[in-house]
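Per your request, structure below.
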C-alpha cells in the first residue's frame, strides 16, 4: 500500500469529523453566520501567508530539482490563487482590519513552520499534505452535498472543489509517495504522525473559526 493511502486511513476518522462540523454543515446549507465566515477568512489569510513560507522552506530543502520547483509553485499558488479568493471576500464582506492570529491559527502555522525548518524534509512534506488534501476532500464533499442556490460561500466551495486545486493536490500526493519510498518504516511512521497531527490542526482551525476564538488574556 502506498504511504499516502496509509496516511489517509490513519487520519480518516478526523476527516469524517471535519465534514460533520457545524462550520462545514452550515457552509453547505449557505446558513453559516457571516461573522464566523469573516473571522475564518481573516484568520485564513494570516494562515496562508505562513503556509506559503513553510512551502518555500520545503522547496529550498527538497532533494530533487522537480520537487524544489513544485513546492515553489505551491508556495506561489497559496498566495496568488487562494489569496485572490480571500481578497474577493474581504471586499464582499467589508473586512478591513487586520486581526492578530488566533491561538489555533498561530499554533497551526508554527507547527508547519517548525516542521518545514527543522524536521526531516519528507516529514515536513507529510505535515503540509493535509492542507492540500483535506481541503480538496472537504471541498468535494461540500460541493456534492450543497442544497442551496445563491450560496454566499459558493466561490470558496468552487475553489476547493475545482479542477485546478485537484491537480495541485494530486501533485502533492505524488511527491509524498515518491519521497516516502526512500524512507525507512520508522521514518514513514514519523511522516504519518505529522500528517495526522496536521489533520487535527485543520479540525481545530475550523472549530476556532466557528467559536471566533479569542486569546484569554
Ligand atoms: C487552514 C487552512 N488549511 C488549508 C488550506 C488550503 N490550502 C487553507 N486555505 N486553510
Amino acid at each position: 500500500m502506498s504511504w499516502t493511502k496509509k496516511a489517509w486511513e490513519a487520519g480518516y476518522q478526523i476527516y469524517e469529523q471535519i465534514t460533520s462540523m457545524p462550520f462545514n454543515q452550515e457552509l453547505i446549507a449557505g446558513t453559516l453566520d457571516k461573522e464566523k465566515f469573516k473571522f475564518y477568512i481573516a484568520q485564513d489569510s494570516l494562515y496562508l501567508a505562513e503556509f506559503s513560507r513553510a512551502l518555500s522552506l520545503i522547496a529550498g530543502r527538497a532533494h530533487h530539482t522537480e520537487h524544489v520547483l513544485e513546492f515553489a509553485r505551491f508556495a506561489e499558488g497559496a498566495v496568488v490563487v487562494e489569496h485572490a479568493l480571500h481578497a474577493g471576500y474581504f471586499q464582499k464582506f467589508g473586512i478591513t482590519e487586520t486581526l492578530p492570529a488566533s491561538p489555533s491559527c498561530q499554533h497551526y502555522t508554527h507547527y508547519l513552520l517548525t516542521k518545514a525548518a527543522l524536521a526531516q524534509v519528507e516529514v515536513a512534506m507529510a505535515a503540509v499534505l493535509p492542507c492540500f488534501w483535506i481541503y480538496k476532500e472537504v471541498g468535494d464533499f461540500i460541493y456534492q452535498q450543497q442544497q442551496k442556490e445563491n450560496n454566499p460561500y459558493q466561490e470558496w466551495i468552487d475553489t476547493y472543489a475545482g479542477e485546478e486545486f485537484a491537480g495541485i493536490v494530486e501533485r502533492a500526493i505524488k511527491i509524498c509517495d515518491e519521497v516516502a519510498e526512500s524512507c525507512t518504516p520508522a521514518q514513514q511512521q514519523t511522516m504519518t504522525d505529522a500528517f495526522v497531527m496536521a489533520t487535527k490542526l485543520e479540525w481545530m482551525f475550523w472549530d476556532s473559526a466557528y467559536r471566533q476564538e479569542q486569546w484569554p488574556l
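The domain at 3-210 is CATH 1.20.910.10 (Heme Oxygenase; Chain A).

Regards,
D.
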